[in-house]
Amino acid sequence: MKLLLLEDDDATRTQILRQLTAAGHEVEACTSGPEAMSLAMQGGYGVLILDRMVPGVDGLSVLKALRAAGIRTPALLLTAMDGIDDRVEGLEAGADDYLVKPFAAAELLARVVALSRRPPISDEVLVRKVGDLALDRVKRIVTRGGRRIDLQAQEFKLLDYLMLHAGEVVTRTMLLENVWNFHFDPQTNVIESHMSRLRGKVDRGFGQELIQTVRGAGYRIDARAR
What we know:
By secondary structure, the chain is of the alpha/beta class.
């Protein structure tokens, strides 16, 4: 698999290159954000591995620009910042996974392989619909009743997951694992705050409320009358 690596630290870059090439991957490495952005725009990579803290245009800025340009290549952010807010910010920018330094070679390889196994978007449903709500997964556009709704990256991801499970109850654990990639409960109100903002954008002013709270269980999006 061909990988793109953005890492400015010589020792870390050399170590990662050695680990990935030993596993049979072809790696194109760069040390600056603009170079990484230019290469990623050309396509052909299975996974992007981006150091968040490179000088100048950092990995987070590169990722935001790529997602805004419609580049959906799976991306793994590398960082020494291990705070929950930092992880949430990275995921909201469009990262598919987040790995905190220092990390074991086996974990890096496992995460890269897991990201590469995700089905191409062309093999998935491109437009999800629930009632008069539509989410275009390629164009990253959400409309309701023909009216466009502007969502932040993580709000889009949250709505996409809810619509994937339309009519079903989605638990807090499911959301943490599949929307935030947390395999533990950080005991914050990150879900509640995002859900509140999402409801304000998707339901307010449209009459019928599509996003429902299922007391003691989780959330559900459903166009059927309650």
